[in-house]
Amino acid sequence: MIKVGVVGGGAWGKNLIRNFYELGALTTICDSNKSLEKVYKEKYPEVSFESDYNKLVSSDVDAIVIATPAEQHYKMAMWAILHGKDVFVEKPLSLNVREADKLVTYAKVNDKILMVGHILQYHPAVVMLKELVDRGTLGTIEYIYSNRLNMGKIRTEENVLWSFAPHDISVILMLLKEMPTHVSCAGESYLQPTEEIADVTVTNLFFKSKVHAYIFVSWLHPFKEQKLIVVGNKNMAVFDDTIKDKLVLYPHSVEWQNKVPVVHKAEGKTFPISNMEPLNEECKRFIDSIQYRIQPKTNGEEGGRVLKILEKSQESLNQGGEKICV
Q1: Are 223 and 156 in contact (CB under 8 A)?
Q2: Which of 85, 112, 139 is the endpoint of a domain?
Q3: In a domain, 281, yes or no
Q4: DSSP letter string over 229-290?
Q5: Cα–Cα distance between 306 and 174 in angstroms, integer?
């Protein structure tokens, strides 16, 4: 049996703890907040609690799952790898590409699995969307638009680009199988203007294939909205994670008549999507990667590519939206 230790029992960590427990892999919960011990002992009495991370990495767990604040990811992941552990790191992998490259290198040298928590790639609707794109159902992809909007959760240590956009960047790169040549990003700080922590950003990705992708994120929005729209020259697909019919294909078309474009709208086709919890599938894939020594699709290299886009987008944001070469 694979033994997993989760470090970070906060807002997201508790979900990872629950899933690894349900999969029968969780043996240790680690958090510096000792007051959490009683809470978790009541829920998972047979799981040990550790407040010292050094003791966790020195224990007999096979793998460590890191769900701590982003600024701690690199140091904790590296320490775990150097102690012979396979590692799952919540997004982002680190705060810069240089650190991500080091983690990837050390994981390879030590023959360790390094996986990044880009959960949307394990969402059944996104998996189906990927199949539609690969089969050519949408035709030639023309543009992709995504938005991730909500009222909260507002952070003080990172801006909305780094907090919300990694998932969308990960999916877009996966669908297109290429890196953008240039990026631009514009945004504004309303709640914390002196700290320049952007609450709203719009990021543009420009690809050699002529595809453009647009990512709109905000934690200062009146309602929750999470959509990814892929427009092809044959069909258009909409992934909406806030409604029951999460994936809909629209065979709309435009016909030119006497040099005038005429729009033909058609009924959308819904796809039956499994109600499987994406996080549970992600955790399963991590365990499979450990057992069979296979690379997960959201491995360290994939996490590094997403991080590179974030870095370049931040550079553009700092320069008022200037177009930056990737």
Answers
A1: no
A2: 112
A3: no
A4: EEEESS-EEEEETTSSS-EEEE--EEEEETTEEEEE----EE-------HHHHHHHHHHHHH
A5: 10
Q: In the sheet that 48-50 helps form, which strands lie side by side, from edge to edge?
A: 48-50, 26-30, 4-7, 63-66, 86-90, 114-117
The answer to whether residues 306 and 118 touch, using CB atoms and an 8 Å cutoff, is: yes
> Does the residue 267 lie in any domain?
yes
Tens-place pLDDT, residues 256-304: 998 999 988 999 999 999 999 999 999 999 999 999 999 999 999 999 9
Q: Is residue 283 part of a domain?
A: no
Report the pLDDT value the prediction gives residue 194, as an integer from 0 to 100.
Answer: 82
pLDDT 10s digits, 134-185: 999 999 999 999 999 999 889 888 999 999 999 999 999 999 999 999 999 9
305, two tokens: 């590519």
Same domain for 259 and 163: yes
CA distance 12 to 265: 41
**Sequence-separated contacts (24+) of 8-16 with Cβ below 8 Å:** 8/66, 8/67, 8/68, 8/90, 9/33, 9/36, 9/40, 9/67, 10/67, 11/153, 12/67, 12/90, 13/67, 13/68, 15/279, 16/65, 16/67, 16/90, 16/279, 16/283
Domain that holds residue 260: 121-276+307-325
Residue pointed to by tokens 């950003």: 201
Beta bridge partners of 203: 185, 215
CB atoms within 10 A of CB 141: 20
Q: Are residues 66 and 197 in the same domain?
A: no
Asked whether the predicted pLDDT for residue 254 surpasses 90, the reply is: no
- For residues 236 and 223, the answer to whether their CB atoms sit within 8 Å is no
Cβ burial, residue 63 (10 Å; 0-12/13-18/19+): buried
Cα separations in angstroms, 263 against 28, 233, 235, 253, 254:
58, 13, 13, 6, 5
pTM score: 0.94
Q: Is residue 228 part of a domain?
A: yes
